[in-house]
Amino acid sequence: MDDWKQLVAANLTILRKEHKLTQLQLAEQLHYSDKAVSKWERGESLPDLAVMKQLADFYGILIDDFLLPPEELASRRSVVIQPEASVQQAEVPADALAEQNDEPAAAPQKQGLSQKKKNRLIIVGMAALLVWLIATMIFVVLDAVLPELRYGPFLFLYAAPITAVVCLVFNSIWFDPRWNYAIISVLVWTVLLAIFLTFYQYHIWKLFLIGIPAQLIILLWSRLRPSNVQNPPAQEKKQ
Question: pTM, whole model, 2 decimals?
Answer without folding.
Answer: 0.47
